[in-house]
Amino acid sequence: MRSIAKYDAETSSKHQSSGSSSHTSDPDLVDDPHELISTDLVYLDSGITYSKNDEPMCVEVEELLGTSPVLRPCTLVWRDVSVHIKLKDGKLKRLVNNVSGIAKPGTLVALMGPSGAGKTTLMTALAHRNPDDTIVDGDIIMNGLPVSDFMHKESGYMHQDELFVENLTVMEHLTIMARLRMDRRTTPLARRRRVNQLMRQLSLYGAKNTRIGGLDGLKTLSGGERKRLAFATELLTDPGLLFCDEPTTGLDSSSAQKLMTLLRASAVQGKTVICTIHQPSSELMALFDKLLLLAEGRIAFAGDASGALSFFESLGYNCPMTYNPTDFFIKVLALTPGSEGASRQAIKSVCDRFAVSDAAKELDMEIQLEFHLMDNEDEESKRLKCSNFQPPGLHTKIAWLVYRYMLIILRDPQVQFFRIIQKLVIALTAGLCFIGTARLTQSGIQDVQGALFIIIAENTFAPMYSVLYMFPEEFPMLHRELKAGLYSTPVYYVARMLALFPGLVVEPTLFTLVMYWVAGLRGTLYAFGFTIFLSILVLNVAIACGSFFSCAFGSMPVAIAYLVPFDYSLMVTSGLFIKLSSIPKYISWIRHLSWLMYSNEAMSILQWDGVQNITCAEDSDSPCLSTGEEVLTVYDFHLSQFWSDVVALVVLYLAFHLLALLALKYRTRRK
Ligand SMILES: Nc1ncnc2c1ncn2[C@@H]1O[C@H](COP(=O)(O)OP(=O)(O)OP(=O)(O)O)[C@@H](O)[C@H]1O
Q1: Coiled-coil intervals in this record (predicted)?
Q2: Which of 212, 260, 304, 661 has the highest Cβ tally under 10 A?
Q3: Distance separating alpha carbons of residues 416 and 504, to the nearest angstrom
Q4: How many CB atoms lie within 10 A of CB 358?
Q5: Residue 291: what are its φ and ψ, rounded to 5°?
Q6: How many CB atoms are located within 10 Å of the residue 489 CB?
Q7: Using CA atoms, how far apart are residues 517 and 521, in angstroms rounded to an integer?
Q8: Do residues 542 and 459 touch, judged by C-beta distance below 8 A?
Q9: Relative to the CA of 117, which ligand 1 atom is closest?
């Protein structure tokens, strides 16, 4: 029997940072996948068992997952774990009740039970990924250390419903994930090799340029391929511990078998794999080493998968020959509609009987022994068992997230093209209405002010509303990636905004350029240049404000409900519709939030500063405004306010973004 030993931290870091750099061939050019992985082959003499059965299994595993050893064997032990959730009325609801167990390297553990038994709740608690509104009591220890944030780098977690950025291809997704997940010291070549290796091992290489999802009629991944891609994503860092939440749900029997064989192979390779699963076939069940049956949040059975039948038989529950044993266990442990009381009694009786059974005593002794060994282990050796993983730097995370979001934007070049065309058409249409009217006459004053307001309004309302959908749409993936410790909320927010930024400069520039030129506004470079700058600033403030509403209210309809009255008040106090000095005191404070007012004043100053020759109609009795300063006075604008307006716009920009970030942090923390 072959065995591999612990792959100590020093060796692993050397292996990651330099070992792979000795290979000079491009992995993309290598046809035989084993050529890629054979260089990782390390067999040592002691440590965990390589195969639970025999030699041929090794060959099978090598075919499936390569020969690369597990970096660190992981033993997870949990004792008297209870999980409560805080309900809205402040009360606590117990979802998991005093559950204990152990998962050792090289084992595949099945966590089974009827729907609602608490499998996912227990698994998220063990993986230290439980929602913030849950309270976990009891001891959960991984390699001697109480679980904490380090679980993000030590373990992989495959969710029941896999979430991807659908527009990316398999290769793009894995490349980006490799940059976000893998140790910062890993060389680019080693990262590329790992991605290629996983795609080959998980039969995704042929689909490497296929988009993950999308509705535009292009070829996308099948359900089985999506699951394998989720699995590949978790394997990027080669974690010693894998949690899989119902990995076979939604797959046909052949795809389910393939995926479970991969999980089995991971366990044989030395990983600890804990997997919730719904009524697997006997063939799939045979792949598991251990079985943990949960019912109503309690343990109904824990031990060797083969021992479950005899335990149930000892209670008088005899599985008929024609029945799949796992179906039988679930039938015994499920609540029967109409007779819930009797079912609960029966479940309680099974759980109580298990608690005093030999299997429970054996498990208890095993757990006590692990805790005893851990208690006696010195801190230094515990520390050595922990990885010296160094996460990617902030700038790397931001850069790769920006790349990801830019890919999403660029993936639909037609949409971007039509957006630009739409802007140009609106600018041209609006500009044509003003053509020849923006003259230095009494009627021209209103036309110039009208053209300026169109520039401000076009750069405010449509962009502000268009951003409302963005954050709610991305909340699920953001929440999941935050829980996995891939990045922090500020990193996500900054990257999201940076990816939008080129569009936030190009769109207002194009619109203002066309509108300004067609409407024939003031023809000095200073006025023209600053108007473009101000329109970019206005659009960015509007996006910041929209982002704040989007993050604060979490759903588009609610955000719109609050934003509409807010934007009306900003518009009314912009200075165009009502003289600023005549706004009632109790509402006039709103104008200090109105970037429409600041930009209107600043753009008006650019048009009217130094103008002395506005003509008056000879045959009119109405008062005549002959200088630019008089025009500004009519609107309650002041020449001296120009730079204050620019500063106010910048302050609003920063303030809205800060508020948006705080709202997003609050929203992601509450989940
Ligand atoms: N946020 C919550 N608030 C209230 N109850 C919850 C919450 N989350 C889970 N529960 C309840 O906790 C119980 C266990 O849920 P959990 O998702 O862990 O079950 P499960 O065994 O994984 O079920 P399934 O197999 O259907 O996924 C269920 O009764 C569920 O309704």
Answers
A1: none
A2: 260
A3: 12
A4: 11
A5: -130, 130
A6: 18
A7: 7
A8: yes
A9: 21
Residue 317, SS3 per DSSP: coil
Please state the atom number of ligand 1 nearest to the C-alpha of residue 113.
Answer: 21
Ligand 1 atom closest to Cα of residue 118: 18
Q: Which two tokens stand for residue 663?
A: 């709202």
Q: Which residues, judged by CB distance below 6 Å to any ligand atom, belong to the binding site of ligand 1?
A: 85, 93, 95, 113, 115-121
Give me 163's structure tokens.
């979430």
The residue nearest atom 24 of ligand 1, judged by CA position, is 115
What value of ipTM does the predicted structure carry? 0.95
Question: Which one-letter DSSP state was computed for residue 40?
Answer: G
Q: How is the chain split into domains, by residue range? A: 3-65, 76-160+241-385, 394-670
**H/E stretch holding 224:** helix 223-235
Q: Which two tokens stand for residue 512?
A: 């203002």
Cα distances (angstroms) measured from residue 171 to each of 8, 27, 81, 175, 200: 30, 13, 40, 6, 11
Please write down the HEC assignment for all residues of 71-139.
Answer: CCCCCEEEEEEEEEEECCCCCEEEEEEEEEEEECCCCEEEEECCCCCCHHHHHHHHCCCCCCCEEEEEE
The rounded distance, in Å, linking the Cα atoms of 484 and 151 is: 9
Q: How many CB atoms lie within 10 A of CB 638?
A: 14
CATH superfamily of the 76-160+241-385 domain: P-loop containing nucleotide triphosphate hydrolases (3.40.50.300)
Residues 328-372 have pLDDT tens digits of: 888 888 888 777 788 888 888 999 999 998 888 988 998 988 888
Which residue's CA is the closest to the ligand 1 atom numbered 16?
118
Does the global pTM surpass 0.90?
A: no
